[in-house]
Amino acid sequence: xxxxxxxxxxxxxxxxxxxxxxxxxxxxxxxxxxxxxxxxxxxxxxxxxxxxxxxxxxxxxxxxxxxxxxxxxxxxxxxxxxxxxxxxxxxxxxxxxxxxxxxxxxxxxxxxxxxxxxxxxxxxxxxxxxxxxxxxxxxxxxxxxxxxxxxxxxxxxxxxxxxxxxxxxxxxxxxxxxxxxxxxxxxxxxxxxxxxxxxxxxxxxxxxxxxxxxxxxxxxxxxxxxxxxxxxxxxxxxxxxxxxxxxxxxxxxxxxxxxxxxxxxxxxxxxxxxxxxxxxxxxxxxxxxxxxxxxxxxxxxxxxxxxxxxxxxxxxxxxxxxxxxxxxxxxxxxxxxxxxxxxxxxxxxxxxxxxxxxxxxxxxxxxxxxxxxxxxxxxxxxxxxxxxxxxxxxxxxxxxxxxxxxxxxxxxxxxxxxxxxxxxxxxxxxxxxxxxxxxxxxxxxxxxxxxxxxxxxxxxxxxxxxxxxxxxxxxxxxxxxxxxxxxxxxxxxxxxxxxxxxxxxxxxxxxxxxxxxxxxxxxxxxxxxxxxxxxxxxxxxxxxxxxxxxxxxxxxxxxxxxxxxxxxxxxxxxxxxxxxxxxxxxxxxx
Length: 590
Fold this sequence. Notes:
Mean pLDDT: 91
Strand order of the largest sheet: 2-1-3-4-5-6
CATH topology of the domain at 184-380: TIM Barrel
CATH superfamily of the domain at 184-380: Aldolase class I
Radius of gyration: 26 Å
């Protein structure tokens, strides 16, 4: 017998392993002898048609879908088309999105036969028995379409049950996933749940604050086996808050050190769940990157959303990690309904500080808040949420079909993450503009660093004030979208910002030139192979912390060449002659 699973987890964020489906598939193959296939969710209609055309129902027991809010419209559409082709094959949904609203999904989408609510591992035996017998089985966590099977049940209980013992989970057969050889960092699930109660976070609801970790022996054993089987030394240890239990993390790090594995690994945690000693030990054990969710630079918002980070302490820990060699990735969220102008300015200020820090962080992210289903924040403000069609990076669906947009508009409870929280203090246009500009700040790294070092504490306020001012005149934001092709437009907005707000000509010319340099380096020379950039500034002489501030126009020009294959930037100093002028005309120069 066969089962097909479609992986919809975090499509578009990074090349990641579908760990949940791999655990389920490994169990079904070992315990029930069901041959499992895991396919990536197709993201446009042509891919959907191709995927359906490749399906056959020979010995097919069911088709399962992991569900995430960021891909849910595509999941539903594909499931509906599979049901049209194979009406007798059960469609099974699981994962966070389906678990939050199982009854609503069953009610509105008749092609969904069964929903597995919460963690699936302890429900798999009953699920398989139910499908094979074509009858509903009364069980907490299994929700049935009334049309499924030959009987009805009285207690269709949608309660989330989180009882999976991490040490009793089956050993994963990673070879089930066809793209296993394309993975850069090998992901290992280290545990589940988070003890904190942030009001915007769906993990709080899904895991019911049930914090668990694998035993150190099991985790280290898995790492050793994977290094041998797949010849890898780079791991991502998957947990929302890996270092919450400091005694555990100390023992784990010492175990890694004693094993002499010499691996590199990354994890996620809160800035208040590490200290300097822990960070030093993690670094010695091979930790190279930590993801820190900061969300807001405002102490007021920290309290309102119950994140409760102390900003100055968080900054200290993050900077210390960076100092000792652990590259931080920090993440911010804007768009909280209670956010005031001064709160947003504080968040932008901290964003700019981290963007300007050297050594560079691994990543500095900014996200637009999405109303996640059934979170405390969404429950409180649900009656106020609105839809305007703007898709932030949180949505992996870049181009909605007519059917998908109709469903989103008709069922805001199911598709709340595609909506937004209105804010009486800050306009939607201001949020969209600032979010879009800062989202692409990684393409203008030199500019934002020079800009912040020049203005320092006034930088964030000036940025906010100007974009708030111009947003009044922007009624249509359809040209503003998370799409690489809009990077030159970001540059145009930044140029207008500089020309409108900076009166010192030396600083203005320097900032305008660095915008053009960043645009060439991080866009044009990669997109259309523009060979050369000419400037009177020397951008390769980074011999001091404030070298950008000390940039001076030189006689002649610097010609910059970039090799995208090895990320190598070279420069040649030119003195303008008639020969050089002729060469400039012949070369493809930005």
